[in-house]
Amino acid sequence: MTDHSLVELKLHKIQPERGPGYFKINNSILLDTQYQTQIKQEILNTVQNNKDANPNTLWEVIKGNIRNTTIRYTSCKQKETHKLETEPIKTIETLEKQLNETNTNDTTAIENEITSNKQVLEGIYHTQLNGIILRARAQHVEHNEKNTKYFANIEKRRRCPLSSSLFIICIEYLSHHIQSNKHMKGISLEPDEDTKQSLFADDATYFLNDNYDSFHNLIESLTLYGMTSGLKLNKSKFTLLRYVLYKKEMKFNWTSDEATTHGF
Fold first, then answer.
1. Whether the predicted pLDDT of 73 surpasses 80
2. Less crowded by CB within 10 Å, the N or C end of the chain?
3. How many other C-beta atoms are found inside a 10 Å radius of the C-beta of residue 77?
């Protein structure tokens, strides 16, 4: 005897049709001489193979072939870059293990090889960082353009290891705004010195006096910045340490005992 009724559920998975999609070119390859040579040869071959074609039709064929050649070329370049990145990482891991297990005092050769591989990695990461800056449209790099939510979110979704560097680039303008905003009052650690913020890697800490307008203006600035940049304020990780009776609002984590910042 039971008061529960057996329920059987059958699900049929329907595979939706894929759309045509789109291809977005990485403009940096336009400076690649090998790519330029391939494209020129592809255009020449297309024209020679379609001598009698209508000019409009020929132009569409040329554009299609350029697109296909570009996709093939960038895919190969991406695989090569990935290989160039993984090989030094594996080599460094092997050498560091060898360094820890060696019984000899002369480890200069191993250390030099580790340094050499790290320099190769730094070069690769520098190139990747330039790509992130370009995609994020950092103001001081890309013709004074504003950073956009779309490009910032791309790097966030990719879980890019350089996201902290991207954060530093983007936070510079918010930091300047907060420091120069007369409606936000910080705390005075020394005479004639107004301390409002402390920035370290991808952590930001703000210090405000007991003026409620300072708190309100800070939250307003952070919210507006998040809407325009895509680097939104994570309220679950945002802790407010109270030493005055601020109104507990906006569903933040409030505390009057202690708070952790920069790991301390």
1. yes
2. N
3. 16
